[in-house]
């Protein structure tokens, strides 16, 4: 990580996560070398690393930020074993551009490729294959972390394992990830066999997930504005890597949304029309072979789509509830959302496999639903009421999406938070790494 010119860029600006809420003024530091990074760490009371700012809430908000996109070098790629070592500011998109032509792909990928490796590790992100593959952190062979003391430490499941399991999913609160070695997976082509299935209700959707357990990738779009017997009607999308086809990547430049649109454009009527049209357009069962990039990252085709929600922004609310709460738990939450009159343009349902060892990792064996809500004056109290339902069912809210959760909900639903704090204490992170979110959630 040595860059030219050897000058640190420092800028004061207003920042927010992808949802545009909350916003804060921040001094953004772009260090030019490791020494520079150490110097800033020593001089600053408390800061947090920031990647592409694709987390929705305030996990990458703080009055001082270390922007990692400056550290974007590829260090090593072994084409035989699929081991890749990169600096933490490398974006997943950059990785795909290099590795796919050699037949290697990310074992776990979120729904956007515009995230950094550091951000993907810190959020321990999941994809459409959690039920088979687990999370991103499970494919990190080792990483290098800058501790609060200014020391660089190598950590892996075998070396300083407690630091490793606190850093994967640790939301930047244990230190700054500088480099990571990842294990990629072999793929036979850059295409996906996609099968879509229409489910007329929530029960049918969950049954379809169960019946298609063997499917490598699965995700459902839910019409969360449908009511009564149609509540939770969904389109389930299954995917398998196609055996035949080239490794040519089909990547188009995103269409840009240049400015914030008036929030009134996204109202109950437009959402209902969109959902109805999307539902009607889908066929009962449909099979096609599609290029990998638009399959995994459909939203990447529209740059700045978050601006469609207007200047006040939006909140993405993603929760998981255990399988034991089943469909009836999901139904109760969807009914509550319907009662409040909140509409969500996008609602995505996935199934999760078992939780892993990472202390603040989000997934657990169950169903996860993600909904986008436009920011309105009453939204926070509604989300707090939903939090109570989710936590009461033994579930939790995804930290990388969260902007409003209260301390008691966090501590009740992430039972290893005290162990997490102990590891932070041992590795000198307390008082050095903090975000607006970590303060709200009562972390030291
Ligand atoms: C369209 C869209 C789709 C998405 N789909 C999914 C999905 O399917 N599954 C999923 O799990 N997530 C999903 N996400 C969320 C996204 O993957 C995560 O929020 C990810 O962490 C963002 O990475 P980033 O580089 O933008 O990190 P940022 O948003 O900048 O930061 C996120 C967290 O990572 C920490 N961090 C960043 N870099 C470092 C570093 N170098 N060292 C230490 N900590 C660091 C920050 O402090 C912060 O706590 C989606 C987001 C969007 C916008």
3D structure, described in words:
This protein is an alpha+beta fold and 444 residues long. Helix content is 26%, strand content 26%. The chain has helices spanning 34-43, 92-99, 117-122, 130-133, 161-167, 202-211, 268-281, 292-296, 326-340, 379-392, 407-413, 417-426, 436-440, and strands at residues 9-16, 23-30, 48-50, 64-67, 74-78, 83-87, 104-105, 140-146, 152-155, 176-183, 185-186, 191-199, 217-222, 234-241, 255-256, 285-291, 302-303, 314-322, 347-352, 366-374, 396-397. The longest helix has 15 residues, at 326-340. Bound molecules: flavin-adenine dinucleotide. Residues 18, 48-55, 59-60, 68, 88, 110-112, 115-116, 118-120, 122-123, 125-127, 171-172, 176-177, 299, 400, 435 line the site of flavin-adenine dinucleotide (FAD). Flavin-adenine dinucleotide binds next to β3, α3 and β10.
Task: Give me some keywords for this one.
alpha+beta, 8-stranded antiparallel β-sheet, 5-stranded antiparallel β-sheet, 13 helices, binds flavin-adenine dinucleotide
Question: How many E-type strands?
Answer: 21
Can you give the mean pLDDT? 92
> What's the gyration radius in Å?
21 Å
**Beta fraction of the residues?**
25-35%
Strand order of the largest sheet: 16-12-14-13-19-20-18-21
